[in-house]
Amino acid sequence: MSGKTQSLKQLALQKFKRNFWGVFSFFFIFLVGLVAIFAYALAPDHSQYANQMHLSIHSKAPGFTVNMLTLPSEIKNTQNVFDKLFFGTVNTETEVPISKYQIKEHTLLYTEYAADGLIGEEKQLDLDLYSDKEQAKLVTTKTFYLGTDKYGRDVLSRVLVGARISFFIGFVAVFISVLIGLTLGSLAGYYGGKVDAVIMWIINVTWSIPTLLLVIAITLALGKGFWQVFIAVGLTMWVEVARVARGQIISAKEMQYVTAARALGYTDYRIISKHILPNIMAPIIVICAANFASAILIESGLSFLGIGAQPPMASWGAMIKDHYNYIILGKPYLAIIPGFCIMSLVMAFMLMGNALRDALDVKS
What is the pLDDT of residue 362? Predict the structure, then answer.
């Protein structure tokens, strides 16, 4: 033979590579994942949850620039590099936006920034209290590339840190849904009879309850918080996985390779896990891609309702909740920016799911 026969995995990979939007979505999702992991290293505001507030410069337009006076604190930051990189820096310094300043005889004279065209309070600072290194860092110019929110926080930093919740909720929710859905779906499809009847009854009852209401009920039962939302969303998304797994296993268990495995005396667990599941994962993978998008939308809805990620934690849904009224107040970008982020990530997952469906379709 002149060449090697390609496996189904290789053929599916080649078909996926030919889908431009599928590949583009994959790299976009990969980029968002890197941003979510290293958000604090990329964000201009390195404080925990990007929660450094400056009320005097609230609701400023993108590209706003201001001089920032940073006053060192006697409190020493004892965080290690790992903690700062992945969980943000505990801010011990005081930042004061200033409109103008000058140095006279070892004294810093400055005027605090005031909103709405007002003149801020004039103050002075004795420079002899600080070392030469500290004096060099006292006044810096800070640019807010996406503007500031109604609390004077950097919108760009909040968007970057907020990507962490929206991205990782997809992984946690899909993991929980696959774990529960595959287990129950496999048992129902393989054994049938009373086992199938009981599991299908549970599936139908869960299916009949609106997803958002069920998530709200579970969230209220577990309490408000970061991980509670992850678990609540995951516990409501297993139904589709279970139904598809059940249907696929009902068809697959009559195949000859399953009959041969039974004749060889293999246990039911081995037949299901080693022989059946690897052959029915294509539709499961497609459902997982769609569930990623659904999890992001559900979390955003919960945060918008105030029962998702709690302040001061950054979340795209919470950012929309805080600023949706600014759409009619002349500053719509405060709600549009996080909304666009949600839309982009959801669309990427949907496009990648469609590409995977086409690549794994054996009939095409």
Answer: 57
Longest dimension (CA), the chain: 95
Dist. CA 134–CA 124, nearest whole Å? 16
Which structural domain, as residue segments, surrounds residue 180?
155-360
**Which range, 146-150, 353-357, 358-362, is most confident?**
146-150
**How many domains is the chain partitioned into structurally?**
2
Whether 163 and 113 map to the same domain: the answer is no
Three-class SS state of 247: helix
Q: Are residues 341 and 257 in the same domain?
A: yes
Tell the residue number behind the tokens 């790299």, with chain if given: 27
- 20 vs 338: CA distance, rounded Å: 26
Per the model's pLDDT, the better-predicted residue between 66 and 231 turns out to be 66
Omega within 30 of 0 (cis) for the link into 72: no
Q: What is the pLDDT of residues 266-301, one digit of tens each?
A: 888 899 888 888 888 888 888 888 888 888 888 888
Residue 1 pLDDT: 41
Residue 56 has pLDDT above 60, yes or no: yes
Q: What DSSP state is assigned to residue 99?
A: E
In the DSSP assignment, the letter for residue 113 is -
- DSSP bridge pairs for 107: 104, 126
